[in-house]
Amino acid sequence: MSSPIERVPKRLFIAGQWADAASGATMPVDDPATGQILCHVADAGPEDGRRAEEAAVAAQEEWARTAPRTRSEILRRAYEIIISRTDELAMLMTSEMGKPLAEARVEVAYAAEFFRWFSEEAVRIEGAYGTLPDGRNRMLLSRRPVGPCLLITPWNFPLAMGTRKIGPAIAAGCTMVLKPAPQTPLSSLALAAILREAGLPDGVLNVVTTSHAGELIKPMLRRGHIRKLSFTGSTQVGRTLLAQCADTVVRTSMELGGNAPFIVFDDADLDTAVNSAMVAKMRNMGEACTAANRFFVHTSVADEFAARLAERMGSLVVGPGTEPGVDVGPLIDQAGRAKVADLVADAVERGAKVLIGGETPAGPGCFYPPTVLTGVDPGSRLTSTEIFGPVAAVLTFDDEDEVVRAANDTEWGLVAYVFTRDLSRALRVGDRLEVGMVGLNTGLVSNPAAPFGGVKQSGLGREGGRVGIEEFLDYKYLAVPV
Predict the structure, then answer these.
(1) 381 CB contacts (<8 Å, ≥6 apart)?
(2) Which H helix or E strand runs over 279?
(3) Cα 249 to Cα 158: distance, rounded to the nearest angstrom
(4) Model-level pTM greater than 0.90?
(5) Other C-beta atoms lying within 10 Å of the C-beta of residue 207
(6) Where does 350-472 have alpha helices with state H?
(7) For 337-351, what is each residue's pLDDT tens digit?
């Protein structure tokens, strides 16, 4: 029987057809656990981007007229196909980005749920009707799809970030060009095949895999046919894309970086705090924008919390995600691992103590051990940088105002975590934190039914929840004389 990698298409998906890049170019897909090449996929150039854009534009008018129930049923069928292929999709994801199979299976379920959620939202797009206050006109308010969309997804959650953007676009009646991360194109190509099987019409979704995104994206935004950009990735790239969108006033959703504070007060349940820290820090090897980055722990419990966290981190098994019993897979590539190692070295040079981990292992692959640092200088680079690795940096605090100031002292504002038994304090601190999401006594906030997004330089707009579809809809107001 062939493997999931052998079965997934390796070509571009444009206007319902699988096609080679116009230049014939391909790019490698690497296994971060071994450094070996898994396969090659088509490497799109500007001409391929133009063809994908034209296919989306050509399909938009008819797709916008499609009955909401039809769009809903396509999403529901795709949800069911994804669930039925959980093991295959999980293996594909683990192969191209490294996360352990158990985590990959969880992501498959998470990804599928976006399709189920938006299949239900597709039939609940409502307008309004009423008489205006002056009595001269009636107002007829309807919702319309914003138009062709460009969707750009990251490598860390390759399936879920695709469904989180594609689901509401389909539900709203928008056509799309999807540009996945070059490290993880296989999950997106598999998703395109599933949607085709589920009955999605030709041209509604187009997928271009490429190693030189700028050459495709910049002209696509400049031509003015793309009316919506949804991007998940770094704040630096987000700023560049926002500038490019300005010329043609493209509507944007930006889910950018994070620097999540994890705050443990003196009255916190330490069992809950440590268990939640393992989730908030180690989910996806720490390669998540929601990952706990700065652990602020009250001085009175800091030593015990750090010791217990180090014990738990030290018990994790590091290895290839495909092997049984592995808890922590490789980081995405050598550059990602080098960044983490440099951040740890900087903190140690500034006086931090390594309780566990902290040494780059020899051998193949991009592995880095779970690491706990205490006595971290607030000026260390890892306190002001998105670590994107399995490193917990523990700092201490003495009072509420102090820790709120420290937690808010960052350009980012995606998520925060607060641990205390005092409900009043939890709500008070939650309100004061400059973030879009807060986990109160929990290390996991992501859910398809909840709005995901941040403030400050963590982005614009929200994905998921009842508001997720709003990002893909415009209002149209008709004035009708009484």
Answers:
(1) 342, 343, 346, 347
(2) helix 270-282
(3) 28
(4) yes
(5) 28
(6) 400-408, 423-432
(7) 999 999 999 999 999
Find the radius of gyration of the CA atoms of the chain: 23
Report CA 162 to chain centroid distance, whole Å. Answer: 9
Fold of 260-447: Aldehyde Dehydrogenase; Chain A, domain 2 (3.40.309)
Q: What tens digit of pLDDT does each residue of 443-461 get? A: 999 999 999 999 999 999 9
Please give the Cα distance from 128 to 477 (Å, whole number): 9
DSSP three-state, residue 274:
helix
What 3-state DSSP class applies to 125?
coil
Tens of pLDDT, residue by residue over 220-264, are 999 999 999 999 999 999 999 999 999 999 999 999 999 999 999
Quick check: is 255 catalytic? yes
Neighbours of 44 (CB within 10 A): 30
pLDDT over 90 at 2, yes or no: no
| CATH entry 3.40.605.10 includes domain 4-256+459-481 | yes
pLDDT digits (tens, 9 = 90+) for 277-301: 999 999 999 999 999 999 999 999 9
**Where along the chain do the CATH 3.40.605.10 domains lie?**
4-256+459-481
What residue spans in the chain does CATH classification 3.40.309.10 cover? 260-447
pLDDT in tens, 230-240: 999 999 999 99
Q: How far apart are CA 157 and CA 183, in angstroms?
A: 11
Q: Are β-strands 228-232 and 149-152 bridged in parallel, bridged antiparallel, or unpaired?
A: parallel
Report the alpha-carbon distance of residue 258 to residue 457 in Å, rounded.
8
Q: Residue for token digits 């090659």?
A: 40
pLDDT value of residue 1: 63
The rounded distance, in Å, linking the Cα atoms of 155 and 199 is 26
Among the options 107, 113, 255, 463, which is catalytic?
255
> HSE (CB half, 13 Å, CA atoms) of 75?
30
Q: DSSP letter at 318? A: B
